[in-house]
Amino acid sequence: xxASLSPRTRTPRxxxxxxxxxxxxxxxxRLVRVEWAKATDTRAAHLLLALVALSTAGIMLAPILAPExxxxxxxxxxxxxxxxxxxxxxxxxxxMLTGEWSHRSVITTFTQxxxxxxxxxxxxxxxxxxxxxxxxxxxxxxxxxxxLAAASGRTLEGTLSVxxxxxxxxxxxxxxxxxxxxxxxxQSSATAIAAYFAxxxxxxLLGTASSLIDxxxxxxxxxxxxxxxxxxxxVPQVAVSTLVxxxxxxxxxxxxxxxxxxx
Length: 263
Description:
Number of strands: 2
Structural class: mainly alpha
Distance between the termini: 47 Å
Largest sheet: 2 strands, antiparallel
Strand content: under 5%
Shape: globular
Order of helices and strands: EEHHHHHHHHHHH
Strand order of the largest sheet: 1-2
Number of domains: 1
Number of helices: 11
């Protein structure tokens, strides 16, 4: 008996033995786990996430030690917790989208998963999960700050409603997605980080001279309405600023990722 050769592989195969099935596509959940690991296991990510945690916990002392400078309300304490998070979390989002291009590992990634849009989708999903974790930690830090304030005999006004908590979560998600979008568009860590801060500062300065920019483009204004759970009359402004800072650059970044040479 002589072995037959497969016309495709040209490797010997005994008659009657079927060829092994082709491997199936990588499950999206596995892609998300891989991107989560990439986002949290690097040295830069460890440093940034540690800074987020330490600064979020530490800043809760500010409204307690300087009560005249901060609103002594439940929502005021929650807003204090968000300050270091929105300053640092977008940088993690930027690194998630630029790390492989900066480290020249895109060939490996896109060889394992040639459908690049699935990789980008997994990165976005992992960034949203990370924002959700940051929101939970921020809530815990806020609860600790409120407990310290109560222990000191201070009486705080108001309560935390579902709308307040939801606004806080959406606020963190929007800021993270802003970093993700500019990272996807520029695909260079240093360039994206510099552009992120430069654009925000420029828009803030222009907003002092133009109410149009301040009310419709400057996220310091529009997304703060989300944080304050102040949606009445502001939904169009929030939508426009989200379109400018998240939707358009992220869409352009996806197109660039799909078309760019990985070599």
